[in-house]
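hey team, just a heads up i'm posting the complex here instead of the shared drive bc the drive is being weird again. everything in one block, sequence lines first with there labels, then the predicted structure for the whole assembly after. its three chains so it's a bit long, scroll down
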Amino acid sequence: MNGPPHLWLISLLPFAGFLLNGILGARLPRWLVSTIGLLAPLCSFGLTLLVCVFVQSSPTVDPDLAPVIRVMPYSENFGHWIVTGALHVDFSLVLDQLSLVMLLVVTGVGFLIHVYSVGYMHDEEGDARYFSYLNLFLFFMTLLVLAGNALLMFVGWEGVGLASYLLIAFYFQKKSAADAGKKAFIVNRIGDVGFLIGMFFLLANFGTLTFADIGAKLVANPGWQGGVLTIIALCLLLGATGKSAQLPLYIWLPDAMEGPTPVSALIHAATMVTAGVYMIARTHVLFDHSPFALGVVAVVGAATALFAATIALVQNDIKRVLAYSTISQLGYMFLGCGVAAYSAAIFHLVTHAFFKALLFLAAGAVIHSIGGEQDLRKMGGLRKKLPVAFAVTTIGVLAIAGFFPFSGFFSKDAILAAAFMQGPHGRALWFVGLVTALLTSFYMFRLWYLAFLGEPRAETGKHHSTPWSMLGPLLVLAALSVGGGWISGAWLGVGRFGAFLAPAVGTRASEVGNAHLELMLSIAAVGVALLGWLGAHLSYRQKSTIPASLAADFPGGYKLLENKYYVDEIYGATIVKPLLVISKYFLDWVVDKALLGGTAWLLGGIATFAGALLQRWQSGNIRSYAAWLAAGAAAVLLFALVPILLGAYGINIKWAGF
Amino acid sequence: MSSLLTQEVPVSWYLLLSAVLFSLGVIGFLIKRNLITVFMSIELMLNGVNLSFVTFAHQWHAVKGQIFVFFVMMVAAAEAAVGLAIIIAVFRARATLAVDRIDLMKL
Amino acid sequence: MHLILFILFAGFCLGGAINLLLQSHPISSALSLIVVMTSLAVLYLLLGAEFLAIAQIIVYAGAIMVLFTFVVMLLNAGREDRTMGSRTARSVGFPAVVVIVGVIATVILRAQGLGMAGLQDGITSTEDLSRILFTELLLPFEVTSVLILIAILGAVALARNDGERKPGQ
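-- predicted structure starts here --
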């Protein structure tokens, strides 16, 4: 077709699905609910593909082209939103290379997970609510990705937080699920304060919130570095850590595993948690002008990666392992952004979406088949019972560990290489990343061994087979995990993919670097991954006592890791408890009961008291009524005749119109 | 003697008389204890006002002042009829004509 | 002549009014009121309102006061008995009356432009009165007749004895 791509449809169709399923879903038959739920993401994905066919990446405009816009960045503007004084914000959607890549991931993986959900939620109640929330999430996520200014992105940002809360607390009758939903939303909100303050500073210093204008202003002033730009970047980083579960605001993601597994796959692996990375990539010009902030981003990313990987070593819940693994991989993406290798970070975002969603969905299939059991210690030997799940999990584990030729290898190497070439600090970060890769390989293979290999430790009782609606997406995602790395079109580095993204996120001079060095680094990474596998093999393949003896030798360390470094408890004691105390003693007693309640009581009391006083006037005695009548008449007479009375004595005044 | 016979009266004296009649009516309304007598004081008030109307009609040579008095008389007649009927009804319910004893709304 | 007549009948007026206040039996008060009405009729005549003077006697003294007398007789109202007074009436009412009469008196006495009334001033004939009444103010006139009809109906409805209620129930 030759018309312009209707970007707004990509967002609006899921919203329509949300409304339909939300309002009518309870009364519709199950198949219709599923169809409506699937149709919206399918159409969004189809539209995105059409847009792909349709746009070219060339920055120059060929006047011979048909009148349709074929050049990125392409923007659609729907009119003014806020026009007041200094603030001018429009409803504008912008499509450029970066948002196109994100859209493909969001709608593509989103659609696959919707298909999977049809099978997963087949026996559950509340499926209409589930699909409507999923569609709502898709609407907000596409809005976030397509937004042309920070305020519209913030709308999507908050909206995905809302959808995440609704979906985490999907089984709201369980207290742990409801608590997890609240925790996610509140921690996200704390990060959003950073985003808001960043927006305020942006407005004060740039006068606009539109990304294109901010970028243009910064490009025009190359000498403007540091200072207020650092503050803005750090504030935005705070928002990103909240949404992308980095230190210090990562605590909600492990608890978010209370939600249904497809939700964990979609929101907490592939799309929502990557919104922070996307935001940094979108505002990368700002970060480029503030080396200090970039350094902070890199350090936060590397530290989080290592931190989460250590915790994942000893977790026993299969979904918790994957959750901490997600936090760790997101740390890699932040590390990539922190060394200004934005293309590499986005590359890892894409491949991570593939294999992490795959791993979550496979875990979901496993949990679904063995009747809801999630503890790794109670699984084992599922290789024979669930061959497809075993095969795809193997692919996913190999991908995440970074083995060649799977997708994780290419993207992780691109980030590590970029970090290494950054200088002495970069070397330290590279080393941290390498250690984390070792740990990643170790705990992922640990999961693999404990769940699928060895002797069955679970009772062999209930066992459902996996329906095709669940297997199909697994297979597609497995294929993508295998072949997804080849989008870079190069053995090492970001290659074609980086060139495609370059107009949107810039390039790094050292990315066209030293091929020999990059080869050595890749070999080091693969070697480390092999080491991890070996360690896991020795510890878990046979009935070995190494894990038990290690745990006994370092009881303190083991307890520390098992309890997630007591971070939740620390936060609880230092932040939550004081807030609760203040709320109870000050806000409840002083403000609510004394001030507000007292004021209300006072007003009521005044009315009652005045009423009691005035009641005695109504005596029923006609003579007193007559007396008051006469008094009133006298008053009126006096009032009306004041000028005449005064005039009689020579004082002439104007009085009440007389 | 002739001057005494043809002497004229200042209009203000008529007005003063009217004011005094009116206030005597108010006083009667306040101090009388029989319901019928209270009603009679009201009629006295009306008459006082009538006198002032006629006086002014004479002063300004306006016939409409006298027509107003005519209407006041008509309305006073209607009011007296209805008011006395009410007094009869109240008497039937309360068996007393003392103003101070008729102090409840509910009959 | 005008002056003498005025003083005489104004005196009757005031005397009747004060007597109304002083008497304790309602029938005496009614008779005093008749005296007031009649003297007022003469005063109207002195002011040149011949129709009104006759109307005053016919309507007020002849109809309304008869109505009052009938009701006094019907209800067998006796002398007033001493009941509890109303303190408000005395403390609030009397000063109010004093203020009213004082203000009016001051205004009247200080007013300029008030003339004199004498016997030589013309009498407003009935024809003058009716000319305006039946042309310009015809509507109020007819409405007044409706009003009187309503009053009759109301009085009948209110005062009717249904036969069941005895005084005191």
